[in-house]
Amino acid sequence: MRKSVLYILLLSVFLVSCSKPTEFTEEAKKEKVVDYEGNEVAFEQILEKHQGKKMLINVWASWCKDCVVALPKVKQFQKENPEIDYVFLSLDKSIGSWKKGVSRFQTQGDHYFLKEGKKGNLGKFLKISWIPRYIVVDETGNITLFKAIEITDKNIEEALKGEASY
């Protein structure tokens, strides 16, 4: 009996830790990020701004080689999918580095600096272990793809079409 209970408990913990959320937690939505003009905005304001549109979030940093190498593909993806709203969340170490990166790479979209980085509520919610990281959000603010690490991942396009399998 004890083994059965222990097994069920461990299985439950495993399933919860592997689950992929479909909506942002209140704590993640309340986290303040910095916009390009230097204003602090709650993440939920970003979601509200893009409500009614599909959104692709790109978590990146200007120091990240994989992120920089992926940017030409991101720009091509943007050309092929102009109807999508693009949001870039930076994990740069400083606002100055982030702004230099945005200026240098000229990516189109809304840019924000995660001042709390991976340790903030939004970073913890996203479980950021690798960047670049792509998240797809639908018109109602629900997450349809929680994690992709390459812009060429077929799951991104499927999620944008409403065919996500996660």
In words, what does this structure look like?
With 166 residues, this protein is of the alpha/beta class. The chain has a single domain (23-160), classed as Glutaredoxin, CATH 3.40.30. The protein contains 7 helices and 7 strands; from the N terminus they run H-H-E-E-H-E-H-E-H-E-H-E-E-H. Strands 2-1-5-4-3-6-7 form a 7-stranded mixed sheet. Strand 3, helix 4 and strand 4 form a beta-alpha-beta unit. The longest helix has 17 residues, at 2-18. It is globular. The N and C termini lie far apart (35 Å).
Key terms:
single chain, 166 residues, alpha/beta, Glutaredoxin, globular
CATH-level-4 superfamily name: Glutaredoxin
Strand content: 15-25%
Structural class by SSE content? alpha/beta
Oligomer: single chain
Shape: globular
What string gives the helices and strands in order?
A: HHEEHEHEHEHEEH
What's the end-to-end separation, in Å? 35 Å
Question: Strands of the largest sheet, in order across it?
Answer: 2-1-5-4-3-6-7
Corresponding CATH architecture: 3-Layer(aba) Sandwich
Average pLDDT rating: 89
Q: How does the SSE layout of this entry go?
A:
Elements: H1 2-18, H2 26-30, E1 32-35, E2 40-42, H3 43-49, E3 55-60, H4 65-80, E4 85-90, H5 95-105, E5 110-113, H6 121-126, E6 133-137, E7 143-148, H7 154-160
Parallel strand pairs: 3-4, 4-5
Antiparallel strand pairs: 1-2, 1-5, 3-6, 6-7
